[in-house]
Design a protein that fits this description.
By secondary structure, this protein is mainly α. It folds into 2 domains: 1-60; 70-216, no CATH class. 89% of the residues lie in helices and 0% in strands. It is built from 7 helices and no strands. The longest helix has 59 residues, at 2-60. The radius of gyration is 26 Å and the shape is globular.
């Protein structure tokens, strides 16, 4: 009898615990699911806005300038425009190397960065300015369709080659420069297309594939 009573009490306690714990677990899982759904929804909304803006720009751009707007026109740049673009690119590299440690701390722990005396808002503003200049350079040299590839592919390749953040930044920038130089040479002597942007992206994609093969070994 005592054993039956204790077993009943144990089952009752387990049932009570389940009634208390399960709603909390379900609420947590439901919250995670909602966050994932919201993140996916925001991604698709931004993708729709991006494609709609691209289509609107293509519709409003004169046909003779459409190819240059979509794929860049580095060959048609004057010497002054080319030198200005190179100076801006070098400035971006030097700026990132100059405050990469402070930027890293700000990105991963804004509270710690503020506690150490760093001006988080100013560092974030500097980063946005540098990123804006990078986008402008990419649009002029690579066009609206391929400029994002030169931002994403070198970073993805560097991620396969190193896990240290400080080396990651240096390697990704070096891969970007290598892609531009090798892609320009590929277009000049092999492809001979009207713009070097596709050859640059192809070169960057090949480097990414090689990094995957290296990691697979």
């Amino acid at each position: 009898m005592k054993t039956d009573t204790s077993n009943r009490r144990s089952d009752s306690s387990r049932a009570t615990a389940a009634m208390v714990v399960e709603p909390g677990v379900m609420a947590s899982l439901t919250g995670q699911g909602r966050r994932q759904v919201l993140e996916a929804q925001e991604f698709f909304e931004s993708l729709v806005v991006n494609r709609a803006a691209l289509a609107l720009g293509a519709a409003l751009t004169p046909s003779e300038d459409l190819l240059e707007a979509l794929f860049g026109a580095a060959q048609k740049l004057s010497l002054g425009g080319l030198l200005l673009g190179l100076a801006a690119a070098i400035g971006v590299v030097l700026a990132v190397l100059g405050f990469k440690d402070r930027l890293t701390l700000t990105v991963f722990s804004p509270e710690l960065a503020a506690a150490t005396g760093l001006q988080v808002d100013r560092i974030e503003l500097y980063f946005l300015l540098v990123f804006t200049v990078t986008i402008l350079i990419g649009l002029r040299f690579m066009g609206a369709l391929l400029s994002s590839a030169l931002i994403i592919l070198p970073a993805a390749t560097a991620r396969q080659l190193t896990s240290e953040l400080s080396r990651f930044m240096v390697v990704s920038m070096a891969l970007s420069v290598l892609s531009v130089l090798a892609g320009s040479l590929l277009n000049a002597f092999v492809l001979r297309a009207s713009t070097a942007a596709p050859a640059i992206v192809i070169t960057s994609a090949v480097l990414f594939a090689l990094s995957l093969l290296r990691r697979a070994r």
